[in-house]
Amino acid sequence: MENQRSLASMQEEVDAYIQQFKSGYFGPLAQMARLTEEVGELAREVNHHYGEKSKKTTEAAKTVAEELGDVLFVTMIMANSLDIDLTEVFEENMEKFNRRDSYRFERKDGKQPAEDK
């Protein structure tokens, strides 16, 4: 796959983008409001694409991918401003989910937790 980037390099690129502006990073509450707005736009797009609600003819064409990208971008802004390494957070979350939820759903390989055998 071409153009593979690490989360760290993406966070650095987002930081370079933000650093060019005098205002810099907004505060956490303003960022949370922006993230909530972007998640709402994603929900609306998913509803239009997969749900029963069709778009108005006057609404701009957007995609689920575009809105998901906006959520990712704003998430990186918030992480940067709070000095959160998303790679580290991702690794910790994967460890948690693999430990906690490895048998939560029926597995394709048929494995079951040891106590169920």
Outline:
This protein has helices at residues 7-19, 28-50, 64-81, 86-101.
Question: Roughly what percent helix?
Answer: 55-70%
What is the CA-atom radius of gyration, in angstroms? 19 Å
Strand content: under 5%
Kindly give the count of domains.
1
Compressed to H and E, one letter per element, the order equals HHHH
Sequence stretches where pLDDT stays below 50 over 5 or more residues: none
Task: Give the beta-strand count.
Answer: 0
Distance between the termini: 41 Å
Q: State the CATH superfamily name.
A: MazG-like
Which CATH architecture is right?
Answer: Orthogonal Bundle
CATH names the topology as Helix Hairpins
Q: If you average the pLDDT, what whole number results?
A: 90
Structural class of the helices, strands and pairings? mainly alpha
What do you see in this structure?
There is one protein chain. The protein is mostly helical and 117 residues long. The protein has a single domain (7-101), classed as Orthogonal Bundle (Helix Hairpins). 60% of the residues lie in helices and 0% in strands. The chain has four helices and no strands. It has helices spanning 7-19, 28-50, 64-81, 86-101. Helix 2 runs antiparallel to helix 3. The longest helix is centred in the middle third of the chain and has 23 residues, at 28-50. It is extended. Residues 28-105 form the NTP pyrophosphohydrolase MazG-like domain. This is MazG nucleotide pyrophosphohydrolase. Keywords: Hydrolase. It comes from Enterococcus saccharolyticus subsp. saccharolyticus ATCC 43076. InterPro entries: MazG-like_dom, MazG-related_YpjD, YpjD/YvdC.
